[in-house]
Structures are given as structure tokens and as C-alpha cells.
Amino acid sequence: MAKKSPKLDAKGYRKFGMRDCLAYAAGDLGCNMSFSLKGTVQTFWLVFMMMETGLLSALLLIVQIWDAINDPIIGSMIDADRRNYKRGKFKTYILVGAIGLTVAGALVFIPAPNASVVMKAILFILGYVIWDACYTVANVPYGSMLSLVSEDAGERAQLSTWRSVGSMIGNILPMVLLPMLIWRKEVDANGNPILNPETGVQVETLLGNRVFVAALIMGVLGLIFFLFMIKNITIRVDENSVKTNEGGEKFNVLKAFGNFLKNRAAMGATVAAMAMFLGMQAANTAVTIMFATYFGQARLSGIVQLIGFLPMFIFMPFIKKLVNKHGKKECASVGALFSMIGGFVMFIFPLMANKTLSLVVYLVALIVFGLGMGVYTCVSWAFMADAIDYNEWKTGKREEGTIYSLHSFFRKLAQGVGPSIVLLIMGALGYVSELGTAGQSLATSYNMCWLVAALYCFSGVVMFLSIKFIYNVDKKTLATMNDELATRRAANNIDSVGE
User: Fold this and answer.
1) How far apart (Å, rounded) are the C-alpha atoms in residues 126 and 52?
2) Is 232 exposed, middle or buried (0-12, 13-18, 19+ CB in 10 A)?
3) Buried b (16+ CB within 10 A) or exposed e, 447-472
4) How far is CA 271 from CA 90, 278, 376, 489, 495, in A?
5) Domains defined along the chain, listed by start
6) How far apart are the C-alpha atoms of 251 and 405, rounded to whole Å?
7) What is the largest CA-CA distance in the chain?
8) What does 424-461 look like in DSSP terms, one character per residue?
9) DSSP 102
10) DSSP H or E segment with residue 155
């Protein structure tokens, strides 16, 4: 039987379809096989390596500054690269980064709790820098590629939604499985649970060697997902025809930075993403410590978090219809409002005297937060594709790699500054690294609850304000922008043919 030929679009490319969506989802799944480990970094170094909160905070800030700086550098390098690659420019860079990530993710989890403070600091910085460089090489072109797979707004929204699917699956797997694998409840010789005398909860120990092995396994899985994406996704815009700097101008970091700050669409999307990471990523360590010291359930913390974020999946089958009817900004604004409400509700759970009731209230707040976050995450990456178009609409320049990498710069700045500040706050609220989770006081366990509630509330409030009042590409503006860009591009094509 003859092989069925794929349907082609007007340009001769395979028509956009589910194959592209699944492939793009696999790409973010691959990214998150590595990225999701970042939530474990602080816990590993705080609990297993017993690094003091102030020192770990400083080291996190140092490596995250490098993390933020290398994104625009790599982004501009990709923009400026005009060489012809067999797989295409974007896929080639992604492949190189993915191969590096197979082992790089484990380098920051080398188990050496008895090493000197200086050696621990060296291991942390070197491991993190190598890991981050590989991740950036894969992630920056992957994110930028969305605007090159399709120029249709609805199809971009689909890609963004499926990217969110890949992202959530990539986060959920380690979120649920890792805590059960790396935490062990302690019992005495008779099999009776060993309790913290102050809090009354069973002591749990973090198994650092298992974290290292898990990171290696996740690196291999990530490479498999990346390879699936590279083979199955189709880029429908000529990568080398994209001009990042018209008129032969040399790339100017300060100028690009200034242009980015003037791009309200990019800034609105970026501030919302920063708020999400400042709240949720920064809260990861505090949540883990809270479950270990207040609920005595660190091993089950991932399952509870999963239940809270399952509502995100509710909107995925309907997001295209919702976006087409109401608009991306409009849908995300309503979602962010729900997240803000969930953040306020979370302040109730530390007031409950009964631990079971307290956990139920926490879960309800998390579900409400997750409902709103589900809408936002489905369209968040489409925000950036529209922001790239917005930049072209306003300036005449199309700078996929530069805009996305600057977005990534601010996002990673939030990812670094947030956990760094939270670690300092944890220290100020009474957490003592040398005591591990077993020796923390009752007051410290309650303080972790208030800290978690404050972080989620902050995240929801800032997300709502940024989407509602900063991001300026509503449904009407998007339609006008797309029409004008289509007319402009058609005119440029006619001019090119005439020459």
C-alpha cells in the first residue's frame, strides 16, 4: 500500500495539525524534565547538604545573575546566526542543549554533605552554571520557535496550550514522584515513628543520593522528548529570512533592553510570568519545609500540590474557543482574578486548630488558585508570540530570539531573586539549617505556613494587575495588528519579487 501523502498548505509545508501540537508539547516536557528540578535545588542544599540559609541565598543570587545574563547573549547569538543547518537553526541549537542536559541536571545534586563549606559553594556554583548554560541553549530557541511554526493566532494559541500541557506533565511527574522517592519517614528499632518533640509530627529524612540518580534519569527522559519534537514539528517561516536588526545594525544589548521596556505587550506578559515564578517557584522550598514540619507529610506534598493544580487541565479542551470568542487577554484576566482570590483564601489555613481541617482549607485555596492559573498558563506563551508581532508592528523589526530571551532574563531573575529572598525570610522566621527538618520549633512550622500563604497571595495579585493593566493586546488590538502586519508583509513580498 502506498504511503499516504500529507496535506500541504499554500507554501508547500505540511498543514498545521495535532502532530505539531504534540511535538511542541513534548519539547516543553523535555525542558521541564530538567527545569522542574529547580524546585528541589534549594531543598537539597538546605536539608541534605545543610547549607546555612544566608550562604545559600547569596549563592542562588550569584548563579541566577549569570542565568539572567546569558539568556540575552544566547538569544542574540541565535538571532545573528545565518548559517544553514541540516535540521534548521532552531532545531540544531535545541538538540545541542538537550544533549548537554542529559547529565548537566545532575551536576548540581552531587551528594557531598561532609564536604567543607568552600567545597560545597564551588560544587554548587559550577554545577548550576553548567546546568543553566545547557538549559538556556535548548530553551531560548524552543520558546522562540512558536512564532515560526504558525502565523495564525488560533494555531499559536493551540501551540501555547499544548506547551502548557507539556509543561504541566513535565512538572507533575517530579512533583508527585520525587517527594515519595527522596523522603523517608523515620522509625525506631521497634518500628515506632520517631516524633519531633515540639511539633509532634513524624521525622522525615531527605535521601540526597536518590536525588542525584533521579536527576540523571530525568535528563535521559528529557532528551527522548526533545528528539521526538525535533523529528515531528514543522517550521513554516524561513528562519534565515527573519531580520533581527534592519539596515545591518550591530546588536546593541542596551538598545534591545530599552526597546523591550517600551513593548507593553512583552512587559505585561513578563511581569505576569515574574509574579507566577516569584510566588510559586519561590514558595517551593517553603512548601516542602511546611509539609515536613507542620503537616509531617513531606512524602505526600507532591500529591497535594497535584490535586491543587489539576483544575488547570479543565480549560485546555476549550481554550481555543474561549480565546476566539473573548480574546487571550480577556480570558487570562479572569483567570488571574481567580488566582488572586485563591491567594487570599490561603491565609485562612494557618488559623485552623485541627491539622486535617487546615490541610483541607489549604487544598481548597490551592484549587481556586489553580483554576485561575489554568487559564493563564494556556495562553501565556501565545502572549509572547503576540508580543513579538507587537514589536514588529510598532518598530518594523522582528526579533524573536532577542525578545524571548529578554523575557526569559526577567523570568529567570524572578526565579533567582524569589527563592533567594525566601531563604533569607525563612532564616529570619526561625529556620535553622543545622537542625534539619527534624529539629525545627513549633513557631517555625507555623511561620512557614504564613510565608507560603503570603507568597501565593502576592503571585495572584501581581498577575492580575499586570495582565489587566499592563498587557495591552486585547482582542480588538490583536485583530488590527494582524491585519496591518499581513498587509505590510504582502507589500514587502511584492517588492522583493520586483527586485
Assistant:
1) 19
2) middle
3) bbbbbbbbbbbbbbbbbbbbbbebbe
4) 26, 10, 13, 30, 39
5) 19-238+252-482 (1.20.1250.20)
6) 14
7) 88
8) HHHHHTT--GGGTTTT--HHHHHHHHHHHHHHHHHHHH
9) H
10) helix 153-182
Residue positions counted in the chain: 499
The pLDDT tens digits of the residues spanning 403-454 come to 877 887 788 778 778 888 899 999 999 999 888 888 899 999 999 999 999 9
What mean pLDDT comes out for the span 229-256? 62
How many angstroms separate the Cα of 197 from the Cα of each of 193, 293, 331, 354? 12, 11, 49, 18
Cell of 310: 489539576
Distance CA 98, CA 220 (A): 9
pLDDT given at position 265: 92
- ∠ CA 86-87-92, nearest 5°, is 110
Q: At 283, which amino acid appears?
A: A
Q: Which three cell numbers stand for residue 315?
A: 480549560
Query: All 3 cell numbers of residue 117?
Result: 563549606
Supply the angle between the helices 53-80 and 117-144 in degrees, to the nearest 10: 30
How many secondary structure helices (H) and strands (E) does the chain include? 18, 2
Res. 249 pLDDT band, cuts 50 70 90: very low
Q: Is 206 helix (H, G, I), strand (E, B) or coil?
A: strand
Long-range CB contacts (< 8 A, 24+ apart) of 201-205? Answer: 201/292, 201/293, 201/294, 201/295, 201/296, 202/296, 203/437, 203/438, 204/292, 204/296, 204/298, 204/299, 204/437, 204/438, 205/436, 205/438
Closest CA to 244 of 12, 72, 65: 72
- What DSSP state is assigned to residue 298? G
**CA-based Rg of the chain, rounded to a whole angstrom?**
23
pLDDT at 245 over 50: no
